[in-house]
Amino acid sequence: AQSVTQLDSQVPVFEEAPVELRCNYSSSVSVYLFWYVQYPNQGLQLLLKYLSGSTLVKGINGFEAEFNKSQTSFHLRKPSVHISDTAEYFCAVSDPSGTYKYIFGTGTRLKVLA
Amino acid sequence: DSGVTQTPKHLITATGQRVTLRCSPRSGDLSVYWYQQSLDQGLQFLIQYYNGEERAKGNILERFSAQQFPDLHSELNLSSLELGDSALYFCASSTRPPVGTSVPEQFFGPGTRLTVL
């Protein structure tokens, strides 16, 4: 069975500093990986996704993630964060068995400090 | 705006009651997924429907049921409510199953916040 681990429940970072949010997955088969962002009192918005091909994936709002098969990781990065990036970030793996339901990590709350 | 709508936005009810949450997928999307987000369980997949038929089940309690109607909207029915059912319930939709390596991205609605008192 697949699982997703987000190692940090909270990450405080100063504005304009770089940030990395960690995500590790467990799966015996090929997976599809996603990062979603949830702003306060809102739904989930897709930041980026990895399906195949280049291991460096660029998403919206300046975020990028790198798929590392050997380390089973899909860490999210941004070189310079803004106050508006304060939100909860969820890593998810899509079940490739045909239903494509998502298995989510527990989320990382990013707090950008002025 | 993802194009997925959910009603109501908030729902407050008492233990033992029954409620219905409604979801309208994006135009053209045939798959609907329901997720529950709670403080102790995180985001968990409940159930998926594809073009009116149940496709997959996750950690959905027997007190919960869902259906997808011919117009593709979906309803999640929660009965004999308990305090622990208080959560944010999300609906997501996606296109028909893919061919090859194309994976349908899921688009999430704004959620329904259920409070059981």
Supply the helix-strand structural class of chain B: mainly beta
Element pattern of chain A in H and E: EEEEEEEEEEEE
Instruction: Give the low-confidence spans of chain A.
Output: none
**Outline of chain A:** globular
The radius of gyration computed from the alpha-carbon positions of chain A, rounded to a whole number of angstroms, is 14 Å
Total number of beta strands of chain A: 12
**Number of beta strands of chain B:** 11
Strand % of chain B is over 45%
User: What is the percent of helical residues of chain A?
Assistant: under 10%
Report the span from N to C terminus of chain A: 41 Å
Order of helices and strands of chain B: EEEEEEEEEEE
Oligomer: heterodimer
User: Cα distance, first to last residue of chain B?
Assistant: 31 Å
**Secondary-structure-derived class of chain A:** mainly beta
Characterize the overall form of chain B.
globular
Task: Please provide a written account of the structure.
The complex is a heterodimer of chains A (114) and B (117). Chain A is built from no helices and twelve strands. Chain A is mainly β. Helix content of chain A is 0%, strand content 52%. With 117 residues, chain B is mainly beta. Chain B has no helices and eleven strands. Chain B has strands spanning 5-7, 10-13, 19-24, 31-38, 42-50, 53-57, 64-68, 74-78, 87-94, 107-108, 112-116. In chain B, the strands form two sheets. In chain B, strands 2, 4, 5, 6, 9, 10 and 11 form a seven-stranded mixed β-sheet that branches. Chain B has a four-stranded antiparallel β-sheet with strand order 1-3-8-7, with no helix packed on it. Chain B starts with a strand and ends with a strand. The model of chain B has no long low-confidence stretch (mean pLDDT 91). The A-B interface holds A 32, 34, 36, 42-46, 49, 51-52, 90, 94-96, 98-107 and B 2, 4, 31, 33, 35, 42-45, 48, 55-56, 58, 90, 92, 94, 97, 101-111.
